[in-house]
Amino acid sequence: MPLTTTTTTTTTTTPSTPLTFYDIATRPPAEKNACSPNPWKTRFALNFKNLPYKTTWVPLPEVASVRKSLNVPACRQFADGSDFYTLPILHDPTTNTLLGDSFDIAAYLQTTYSTAGDGDLFPAQPLDYTFPLDPPPIVPLSECNANNPALAAYARLNVHVDAAFTAHTQLTVQGFPFDPATAATTKAEFVRRAQLAGAPMSSWDDFKCEGEYRQNMIRSFEKTLGAIAALFVQNPEGPFVRGVSACYADFLVGAWLRMFSVMLPEEEWALVKGWHGGVFGRLHDALEVYAEVK
Ligand SMILES: N[C@@H](CCC(=O)N[C@@H](CS)C(=O)NCC(=O)O)C(=O)O
């Protein structure tokens, strides 16, 4: 569902005016350190569609004010029910459309620019993968696209893949490539959020994930990724779910791999790339063709 749309125009051709894609600023250079999974889903989709666009990098403490200034409502809430303002946002001046959820954005790009670039982001396929959703996912999908039958398998996969990776993000927290200009504010904000959720945190150091606890989480991550790997080995040609051509399912997983590739210690990222016959290493490397940071 477009959160804000004043005109609806469907065109299958490439737009003449570049789109604006809002992503979270990290420590420069962005080409190396961009690591927010939901914005990565959008970057992959825009590059797959070969659309002209420009990234606006938003410092983390300014995400809320930028989103509010664009009149895009929040699509997430914090533990206390207050609005949690997020990115990506996409503005397409050609159709006067503003969207604030990565799945809405991908669905919009497919509808509006259906034949652009490498074609169909959402080819029909079953995409059977389940991660136990208990507690319920903390990164909700926009309700409209979650209920769109043509996209249902992808919407479901998005929720389950997000839950699987989110359950292991503690492995990455200490590796966050903070923009030095906003690091202190952002760390304090992360501690505040953890406290809102009832976690006994008083400082950034309390996010540490070390020793036996970390080893157990790494084992759990490997096991969890094993079930996702099953999607990719169905088609022995690889490296994508459907073999040689990518689709949005590859981007859903690949976006999280981007985050872990930046934020995990190097030796642990090397392990992830090698797990399950190297399926995630191959996927990550093959997605390089859609990973240009513009
Ligand atoms: N359902 C939304 C979730 C977006 C989301 O959670 N974005 C995160 C980055 S991956 C964010 O903007 N976080 C801002 C913050 O932590 O302050 C989507 O798919 O776009």
UniProtKB/TrEMBL annotation:
Residues 191-290 form the Glutathione S-transferase UstS-like C-terminal domain. InterPro entries: Glutathione_S-Trfase_N, GST_UstS-like_C, Thioredoxin-like_sf. Residues 1-21 are annotated as: Disordered. Residues 36-111 form the GST N-terminal domain. Gene3D superfamilies: 1.20.1050.10, Glutaredoxin (3.40.30.10). Residues 1-20 have a biased composition (Low complexity). Pfam families: GST_C_7, GST_N_2. This is GST N-terminal domain-containing protein. It comes from Aspergillus japonicus CBS 114.51.
